[in-house]
Amino acid sequence: MLEDGFGRRFAYLRLSVTDVCNFRCEYCLPNGYQGKPTGFMSVDEIRRLVAGFAELGTTKVRLTGGEPMVRKDFMEIVRVVRATPGIERLAMTTNGYKLCETADELKAAGVDAINISIDSLESERFEEITGDRRFAKVFESIDTCLEAGFGAVKLNTVLLKGLNDHELPGFFEYVRSRPIALRFIELMQTGDNQAYFEKRHVSGDVVRRKLDDEGWKPVDRGPVDGPAVEYGHPDHAGRIGLIAPYAPGFCDTCNRLRVTARGGLRLCLFGRGSQNLRPFLQRDEDREQLKACLLTALLGKKVSHFLHQGDFGDTPHLAYTGG
Question: Is 4 within a domain?
């Protein structure tokens, strides 16, 4: 089993398949994608990677980007990951631009859960934040995914001062009749957003106080759930979640590891450096070496991030490691 020096076990892999994104969200890629869209892991490398993780106890994989669906072979990746023995749950995070056309195919290919990034319920504000005009299509995709029958449909909303923090009542109302989990994500500082962070950061306490005032109660976390603390309310079909990385004890229940689209193992979103796994992904016969590398690397995982000290590691922006 993958376990670090603090007794935390890691059954959840967040796997980026590309760092390319076709949106220009101002908190992540305000100038659009500036990298080189080459050198990403092949389908066979991904197959070998996930098999190694599964043999060490990983049961859940989340496919991320960038925007994962810009890869033309994304459906093939989904099928390969889902077919891996030991993988019980396959999720993905997307900006939703393609879901109206592909939701049924994704479900049939084995995706269990969909997370859709949507930072406003207002079309003009959505365009301002994301740099994209497809609000109606993304918004429609939420109900499309519900109709397709995924085990879970969740929305991710980065909380931004002066842009969408006034929409909290609308977001709460949105989940009154929809069985979805809407999670507010506290803006995090990265290598290239210090001025933006200082201008737009809103503490997760703002959401927490509203939840408490309106009678929402925390619900129990599952063993492979992500970092969100989710709340339920008897008058709402859906849930509200909060991802607050600056809250005390945020890292205590860490259960996930990250691999970048080019095969780098990241022990923490805000850590430094990565372990290159690609030398162990070229042949099926190298799986034992891959597993040994993973077990050794975990011994270097820190007890927490150091965001409170202004240390955000070497993460330039969230698309770099899959968020």
Answer: no
